[in-house]
C-alpha cells in the first residue's frame, strides 16, 4: 500500500483531531503543517516531525503531498479548496465548505476540472446514534415520520470570540452559531428528515451583543419533503455545552437522543438502541468522536475511488443552504422555499 502524504493547513483548535486521526490510520503520514503564525507552526512541526510552511501556496507546490486538510477560518475555505484542487491534491475540509451557496457554486465548477476529490468534515453523521437513527427512519421501523425536534444549547464565552477575531464576524465566519456550531445539527436534522423543502426562522444576538456582530441564538420551523415538520432551537448562551437533544416522532412511537444515547420508545417501553463513544482525550466532548471515522472514510475513498461514507460537496451544501435560508427568512420575516 502506497503511503499517502498529508498536510494540514491551520493549526488551531480543531487541527489536533486531524493529527490524532492521521496517527491512527495505516499507510498515511503527516508530512507538513501550515500556519501563518510562525512560532506555533514551527513548534508543532517539531512535535509532529514534519515540515512547516507559513504560506499554503508553497506547500501546494510540494508534489509529495497527496492530501490537504483545511482547518482554517471559514472565509479561507473556498480559496484554499480551489487552490488545492487546482494543484491536483485530494482535499478534506472542515465544515462549512464555504461561507454561502455562491461559494458552493464556485467550488462545484472547480471540482469539474479537478482530478482530486473533496470531502467535508461532518463527523457527527458517523456517530453510532446517528447511523442507527438514520437506518431506523430509512426502514420506516416506527411508521411514518411526523416530526423532528432539535434542541442544541452550548456555551461560547466572550474570549472565544475576542481571542480569535475571525469568529463572530460575518465577513470572516459567515455568521456564528448557525454556520459554526449548529450546522452539524441542521445537517443531521435534514439528513434524518429526507431533506427540507421550506422553513421560517429567526436569528438574534442575545447575550453577546457587545462582542459579536452575528447571532448567538436561532430557531426555525421546518417542513420536510415527506410532509413531516421540524422544530429547531439552538443557542450559544447556555452555561455549558449540553449534549444535543432530538425527539423524533413517528406514527408508531418515538426516537429520543439524550446524553449521547439513542432511545426507542414504543408502547410505553423505553429501550436503548445505541450510545456514542467518548472522544479522544484532547478533543471537546461536543465535537463527538467521529473525526477518525470521517477521515478514515475519506482516505479509503481516495484509495478505492468510491465515495462511500464521505460527505461530498453536494451533501455538505445541504446544511449550508439551510443556514443561508434561516438568515434570509429572519431578515424578510417570511417562509423560504428551498431549491431542490
Ligand atoms: N468538525 C467540528 O466539529 C469542528 C469543531 C471545531 C472547529 N471546526 C472547524 O474547523 C475550522 C477551524 O476552526 P478552529 O476553531 O480550529 O479555528 P482556530 O482559529 O482555532 O484556528 C485556525 C488556525 O488557522 C490559522 N490560519 C489563519 N489564516 C491562515 C492562513 N492563511 N494560512 C494558514 N493558516 C491560517 C490560524 O493561525 C489558526 O492557527 C473552522 O472551519 C471550524 O468551523 C470544526
UniProtKB/TrEMBL annotation:
<feature type="domain" description="GFO/IDH/MocA-like oxidoreductase">
    <location>
        <begin position="132"/>
        <end position="255"/>
    </location>
</feature>
<protein>
    <submittedName>
        <fullName>Gfo/Idh/MocA family oxidoreductase</fullName>
    </submittedName>
</protein>
<dbReference type="InterPro" id="IPR036291">
    <property type="entry name" value="NAD(P)-bd_dom_sf"/>
</dbReference>
<dbReference type="Pfam" id="PF22725">
    <property type="entry name" value="GFO_IDH_MocA_C3"/>
</dbReference>
<dbReference type="GO" id="GO:0000166">
    <property type="term" value="F:nucleotide binding"/>
</dbReference>
<dbReference type="Pfam" id="PF01408">
    <property type="entry name" value="GFO_IDH_MocA"/>
</dbReference>
<feature type="domain" description="Gfo/Idh/MocA-like oxidoreductase N-terminal">
    <location>
        <begin position="5"/>
        <end position="120"/>
    </location>
</feature>
<dbReference type="InterPro" id="IPR000683">
    <property type="entry name" value="Gfo/Idh/MocA-like_OxRdtase_N"/>
</dbReference>
<dbReference type="InterPro" id="IPR055170">
    <property type="entry name" value="GFO_IDH_MocA-like_dom"/>
</dbReference>
<dbReference type="InterPro" id="IPR052515">
    <property type="entry name" value="Gfo/Idh/MocA_Oxidoreductase"/>
</dbReference>
Amino acid at each position: 500500500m502506497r503511503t499517502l502524504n498529508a498536510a494540514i493547513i491551520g493549526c488551531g483548535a480543531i487541527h489536533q483531531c486531524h493529527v490524532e486521526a492521521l496517527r491512527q490510520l495505516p499507510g498515511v503520514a503527516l508530512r507538513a503543517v501550515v500556519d501563518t503564525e510562525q512560532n506555533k507552526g514551527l513548534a508543532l512541526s517539531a512535535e509532529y516531525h514534519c515540515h512547516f510552511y507559513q504560506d499554503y501556496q508553497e506547500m501546494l507546490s510540494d508534489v509529495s503531498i497527496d492530501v490537504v486538510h483545511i482547518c482554517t477560518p471559514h472565509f479561507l475555505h473556498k480559496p484554499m479548496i480551489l487552490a488545492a484542487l487546482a494543484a491536483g491534491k485530494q482535499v478534506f475540509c472542515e465544515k462549512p465548505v464555504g461561507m454561502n451557496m455562491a461559494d458552493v457554486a464556485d467550488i462545484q465548477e472547480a471540482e469539474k476540472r479537478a482530478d482530486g476529490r473533496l470531502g467535508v468534515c461532518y463527523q457527527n453523521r458517523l456517530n453510532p446514534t446517528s447511523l442507527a437513527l438514520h437506518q431506523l427512519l430509512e426502514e420506516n421501523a416506527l411508521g411514518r415520520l411526523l416530526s423532528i425536534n432539535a434542541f442544541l444549547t452550548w456555551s461560547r464565552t466572550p474570549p472565544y470570540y475576542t481571542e480569535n477575531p475571525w469568529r463572530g464576524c460575518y465577513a470572516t465566519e459567515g455568521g456564528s452559531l448557525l454556520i459554526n456550531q449548529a450546522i452539524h445539527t441542521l445537517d443531521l436534522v435534514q439528513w434524518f428528515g429526507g431533506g427540507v423543502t421550506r422553513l421560517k426562522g429567526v436569528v438574534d444576538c442575545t447575550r453577546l451583543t457587545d462582542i459579536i456582530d452575528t447571532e448567538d441564538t436561532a430557531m426555525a420551523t421546518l417542513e420536510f419533503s415527506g410532509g413531516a415538520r421540524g422544530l429547531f432551537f439552538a443557542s450559544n448562551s447556555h452555561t455549558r455545552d449540553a449534549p444535543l437533544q432530538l425527539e423524533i416522532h413517528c406514527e408508531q412511537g418515538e426516537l429520543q437522543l439524550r446524553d449521547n444515547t439513542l432511545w426507542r420508545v414504543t408502547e410505553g417501553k423505553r429501550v436503548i438502541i445505541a450510545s456514542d463513544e467518548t472522544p479522544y482525550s484532547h478533543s471537546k466532548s461536543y465535537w463527538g468522536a467521529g473525526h477518525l471515522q470521517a477521515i478514515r472514510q475519506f482516505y479509503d475513498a481516495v484509495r478505492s475511488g468510491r465515495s462511500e461514507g464521505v460527505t461530498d460537496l453536494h451533501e455538505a451544501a445541504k446544511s449550508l443552504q439551510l443556514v443561508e435560508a434561516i438568515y434570509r427568512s429572519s431578515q424578510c420575516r417570511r417562509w423560504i422555499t428551498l431549491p431542490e
